[in-house]
Specification:
The protein has 2 domains: about 150 residues, Alpha-Beta Complex (Quinone Oxidoreductase, Chain A, domain 1), CATH 3.90.180.10; about 140 residues, Quinone Oxidoreductase, Chain A, domain 1 (Alpha-Beta Complex), CATH 3.90.180. Helices cover about 30% and strands about 25% of the residues. Keywords: NADP, Oxidoreductase. This is NADPH:quinone reductase-like Zn-dependent oxidoreductase. It comes from Janibacter alkaliphilus.
């Protein structure tokens, strides 16, 4: 495809720049998606700041974004899993543009009736949470296991709660730093809310599980929260670290790990393309039915037009949004 397209680009300051860039052409194994809506992730803010020359950043210009929903408009050579006209959603780089290239392995069909401004807010959460479950060998079902989700009130954590519910979790415990988000957590399926600004995590989880601890931890926080999760995990339980917003370093009690015979996993899919493709294939099999019937829905804090991108960046900096921020095109 020739010509130019509108895109949000980093490298020009403390926000995105709305500008014209060359339109892409799909190569072998790629599909071209005309974006209808895109969703924002926490990582987007770090990328803006890392490229901001006024803040010591690289100044390197690049199309921003990771999540998109829209319609397939062109296919590269060898594409056999997707057709022109398909309504899809995907997690991929350079997503904040009118036209987005996607590896066909990363494309997820968007269920009938799921609006693009809703569908665009799902892919990263689905693949992140399902990938964590796959690391623990639990991608096909939880069979009543109890689950602790730290950072449960984040946009990704809220999807995680619904994912474990859809896959048959028993008791679900979720953490948040603010009591203001406790009701939201209960609405999406959390049984016990732990407000970490008011409660000690380990004590609260043990109290909620009659001293046993949980079978599985999905940790989106890391830092010292990761250490606090270990003594809150049941014997032979598993802990999967997903995010590190609380910092990459932690001082742990090895006794809490060893005496309980715990298994710890770490996951990060961005640089491992084949692994990401396998995880997304698992999402299509195990989670899209729950998306189609409404058991899994993103919590969308606000939907704004493409031209209001600077306001979205400010909302990210404020940290006040309850759920995903979405930009619509067209």
């Amino acid at each position: 495809m020739t010509g130019t397209m509108s895109a949000l680009v980093t490298g020009g300051g403390p926000t995105w720049t709305l500008t014209e860039v060359p339109a892409p052409t799909p190569g072998p194994g790629e599909v071209l998606v005309r974006a209808a809506a895109v969703a924002v992730n926490n990582a987007d803010l770090g990328i803006i700041d890392g490229a901001d020359p006024g803040a010591g950043g690289s100044g390197e210009q690049a199309v921003a974004g990771f999540e998109v929903a829209g319609e397939v408009v062109a296919l590269g050579e060898g594409v056999d899993q997707v057709a022109v006209g398909d309504q899809v959603m995907a997690s991929t780089g350079a997503a904040f543009a009118e036209l987005v290239l996607v590896d066909q392995r990363y494309v997820m069909p968007r269920p009938d009736g799921l609006a693009p401004e809703v569908g665009c807010a799902l892919p990263t959460g689905l693949l992140t949470e399902h990938g964590a479950l796959a690391a623990a060998g639990l991608e096909s079902g939880l069979d009543g296991r109890s689950v602790l989700i730290t950072g449960a009130s984040t946009a990704i954590g809220l999807i995680g709660v619904q994912v474990v519910r859809a896959l048959g979790a028993g008791q679900v415990i979720g953490t948040t730093r603010s009591d203001d988000k406790a009701d939201l957590l209960r609405e999406v399926g959390v049984d016990t809310v732990v407000v970490t600004s008011e409660q000690e995590l380990t004590e609260a989880v043990l109290a909620a599980t009659e001293g046993r601890g949980v079978d599985l931890v999905l940790d989106h926080v890391a830092g010292q929260t990761f250490a606090d999760c270990l003594p809150a995990t049941a014997e032979d339980g598993q802990v999967v670290n997903i995010g590190r917003v609380g910092g990459p370093a932690s001082t742990i009690d090895i006794d809490a790990l060893s005496f309980r015979h715990l298994t710890v996993h770490g996951v990060s899919f961005g640089a491992r393309e084949d692994e990401m493709a396998r995880v997304i294939a698992g999402v299509r099999e195990h989670l899209l039915p729950a998306v189609a019937d409404g058991r899994i829905r993103p919590v969308v804090a606000e939907t704004v037009s493409w031209g209001e991108h600077e306001r979205v960046v400010q909302l990210m900096r404020d940290g006040s949004a309850r759920g995903k921020l979405v930009l619509t095109l067209g």
